[in-house]
Amino acid sequence: MSARLQAESLYKVFGRRPDQAVERLRAGADREELRAEGATAAVIDASFTVEPGQIFVVMGLSGSGKSTLLRMLNGLLDPTAGHVRFDGQDLTTLGDRELREVRSRKISMVFQHFALFPHRSVRENAAYGLEVQGVPRAERVRRADEALALCGLAGWEKSWPDELSGGMQQRVGLARALATDADLLLMDESFSALDPLIRRDMQDQLLELQQKLKKTIVFITHDLNEAMRLGDRIAVMRDGRIVQIGTAQDILLRPENDYVASFTQDVDRSRVLTAGELMDTSVTGDDPGCHCETATADTPFTELCAISARLSHPVSVVDEGNKLIGVVPRQRLVGFLGDEQDTTPEPCDSPRDKGGEKVIARA
Fold first, then answer.
1. Whether 279 contacts 328, CB under 8 Å
2. β-pairing, 233-238 with 55-59?
3. Regarding the domain with residue range 52-268, which homologous superfamily does it belong to in the CATH classification?
4. Which residues are CB-neighbours of 239 under 8 A, at least 6 positions away?
5. Which of 75-84, 163-172, 314-323, 327-336 has the lowest mean pLDDT?
6. What mean pLDDT do residues 197-224 have?
């Protein structure tokens, strides 16, 4: 499967002599040196790929460069160096007119602060991108209403934005992006202005829509829990650089450095971990004695704990053909619940695992 979106060694420098600043960064200069000379390195040597139908989350603190990176992906900001390729087309070589065409038909953006027109109805806001494309009115209305229905706003088409709650307004923004049937959605902290419960609801809405529509999405957030809930893959940024790319499990269990590890300290692991990450794969084959109640690699942590509580031996993890691919000893679950630092799996026949019990040794 070829990547839908590719970022290749992207740099964005604001201020004096940006091209010279890029060369200095490549030679090992840091941001502080450049800042003293009047140049700000917002994004430094960022590279990644996004596959079709994937939610790729870029996460970092304020000032890490994530929003600048997003704006280079659709040409709102020109890279100082590097390339952005979408379906094989190098967007960094396009002129203004060609870029506007790409943005109006192939790439849609969902903003943090809704960006709705107060003098337009909900339907007219949802149809705005189609209006820019020159789509006939009847077709605009049909597609806007379909997108609003997908976002749970059927019946609100004639309402005004100020009659809607914050969450509903954000749904209109999402419907506007969906109505254009763009292949790529760019979402810049789209839920961060919402109250926690509404934010959770919008995350559910996005995941539900993704099940149906299989869009390619780049989602920006500063919230690791949100990143881990939504992202198929996550890029963590710090000071303009991507310091790690991986799945939620990679970020949680195999942080590249102390900076990434510091983000994971307060994460609820039970919402992220599955049997596939916890199982001991040294025990495989066909062992009917361990198959009275089994899990699969995708079984969530909480469900795995419930299964383990009903058994006196490690939980067997099987594949689609019911073949044993690993086991999860009870002490492994207890270790993660207690934030144990040693995450190396132990075989299920460990002498300390008799009856599924073990005294946990703290790191």
1. yes
2. parallel
3. P-loop containing nucleotide triphosphate hydrolases (3.40.50.300)
4. 31, 44, 64, 65
5. 327-336
6. 91
Q: Which of 73, 284, 99, 98 is closest to 184 using CA atoms?
A: 73
User: What is the maximal distance between C-alpha atoms in the chain?
Assistant: 73
More confident residue, 207 or 275: 207
Q: Backbone phi, then psi, for 6, in 5-degree steps?
A: -130, 130
Mean pLDDT of 316-343: 77
Token duo for residue 236: 């963590």
Extended beta strands in the chain, E state? 5-15, 39-50, 55-59, 81-86, 89-90, 107-110, 184-188, 216-221, 233-238, 241-246, 294-295, 315-318, 324-328
If one counts every other C-beta atom within 10 angstroms of the C-beta of residue 323, the result is 11
Class (C level, CATH) for 271-356: alpha beta
Q: How big is the chain by its Cα radius of gyration, in Å?
A: 24
Lowest average pLDDT, out of 24-33, 225-234, 271-280, goes to 271-280
pLDDT surpassing 80 at residue 279? yes
What Å distances lie between residue 75 and 45, 116, 231, CA to CA?
Answer: 17, 22, 23
Hey, which of 4-13, 100-109, 200-209, 250-259 has the most confident mean pLDDT? 4-13
CB 91 within 8 A of CB 84: yes
Mean pLDDT check: name the lowest of 99-108, 253-262, 341-350. Answer: 341-350
**How is residue 242 annotated by DSSP?**
E
> How far, in Å, CA of 161 to CA of 124, rounded?
10
Q: Domain residue spans in the chain? A: 52-268, 271-356
pTM: 0.81
Report how far residue 133's alpha carbon sits from residue 131's, in angstroms, rounded to the nearest whole number.
Answer: 5
Please check whether the two domains, 52-268 and 271-356, share a CATH topology.
Answer: no
Q: How far is CA 341 from CA 252, 254, 265, 336, 359, in A?
A: 12, 11, 11, 8, 15
Residue 232 has which token pair?
Answer: 């198929």
